[in-house]
Amino acid sequence: MDQFAPNDLSPYRVYRRSDWATLRDDMPLPLTEQEVERLRSLNDRVSMTEVEDIYLPLSRLLSLYVSSAQTLFNATRSFLGNGDRKMPYIIGVAGSVAVGKSTTARLLRALLARWSRTPKVELITTDGFLLPNAVLKAEGLMEKKGFPESYDTSALLRFLTDIKAGKRNVEAPVYSHLVYDVIPNETVLIDQPDILIVEGLNVFQPAHLPKDGKAIPFVSDFFDFSVYVDAEVGIIRDWYVSRFMRLRETAFRDPKSYFHRYARLSDEEAVETADGIWQRTNLPNLKENILPTRQRADLILHKSAKHSIEAVALRKL
After folding, report:
1. Strand order in 121-125's β-sheet?
2. Domains parsed from the chain with CATH numbers
3. Does this model's pTM top 0.70?
């Protein structure tokens, strides 16, 4: 991986796992093993040692960043003499399907919420901003679900604009992985959090710049810090197939599941089906849209085949 090769011109400072772990600085682990188990995504192996070595130092770093941002905001408000409301600190988390970004986002939320000042931390995924299946089918985009064009980007930008403006009770749509669709007329309310974590496949994706020079916002423009969860492409493919096999034995057995038809597949058929979905949809999306945004992240967590994070790349200040 380029970020982890010796390079004086790299914008990143690279830490091997053992070096990054020392940055914990004796910070106590506020999560129990049972809590970590609940936060772990299907097929994502995260040990207590991983939380201690990787996520505790990261939460400590983020606590410093958030505190500095709040100090700067207060100083700027005093300088301008206005009464602007405190804007929440927004953290973006991106990466491929099956790479473990949801686990990363949930662990960060749990750890950040347990700082001594107990900040209010919320988490949303951009799945809720996917266009409904009916719209995707009408526009021929079902095979490209998860690609940038399959999202209601305007709605996501409006949501983030309202969050950054400090508005009360901002609504976000809800997505069901069981039925594989946005749930009509169901929302969650995000009410002035101190920190908001936004997790999604393409949240670092830039828009196409207009030739007339007009200002257009990117989703990532709203982020104060960004994390990319990374692994080699072949390894992610294996994780995706393994997760599909586990879902075939669990969630897919529910008659309400969109993928219920896959529950009756043989092992060989299931592997072939999972690999076909990977090759048609997830791999092209990763190569064309997700992986090219890796270099836009402030921090990259690089995983080995065993799911453990073996190196951390932090953008230099």
Report:
1. 12-16, 309-315, 299-303, 225-230, 89-95, 195-199, 121-125
2. 2-201+214-315 (3.40.50.300)
3. yes
